[in-house]
Amino acid sequence: MTVGEAMPSRWHEAEIERVVRATPRTVSVFLKAPVARHVAGQHLDVRLTAPDGYEAQRSYSIASAPGEASIELLIEKLDDGEVSPYFHEVARAGDTIDVRGPLGGHFIWRAMDGGPVLLMAGGSGIAPLMAIVRDGVRERTKVPLLLVYSARTWEELAFRDELIDLEARHADFRFIATTTRGPERRVGDLHRRLDAASIREILAGWRQTPRHVFVCGANRFVEAVSTGLLAASLPAGIIRTERYGGVA
Prior knowledge:
alpha/beta, Elongation Factor Tu (Ef-tu), domain 3, Rossmann fold, 2 domains, globular, disordered N terminus
């Protein structure tokens, strides 16, 4: 930790640099905050305080690669949420919020951990896996990475264009999009929900044996994918999961 960086357990003021529309339901919020360098897969706690003193706090995974000048959070709008509507409807560049972190030591990956690495994302669960992808492709270790990203439609795939570009420029990275309410747009993509059969098909096409598996998304997605991975004969010990649910 360098001089001026905040302790992960303490709250610190962060400035919003910009808010960018990612999908119809998500925005990328870029923050400037003197926090320690994060590890891909970690998250920040965010705290908002109303004029009357009421506080609301939520956790959001960091999507930016470690060492980037700005911290990027991907925030999905939940209509009944206390925190997410602020970032979609109110937040502007120059506003300040309180953050704490980076936090989390289980759902993380470093280049030294090696691979191959299988990443399975559902919806806004792409955020921590995007940090792993961004970190992995810039390292010179040439770790095989496969990202399987499920969303309802093509338009709801956050970072879609960046992922397609990364796949084109990095031989060791592969990106498969699977849409459940819209047709596939590229050869190799899928139009179906992920289950044991589709996971077996994906792994056969990849021709790699995963050393690490990360699954992130809503509770139902994580349960279905984890069950499918086990049915596809992947050992439970290599599978790490992170799920979200409730209000935000």
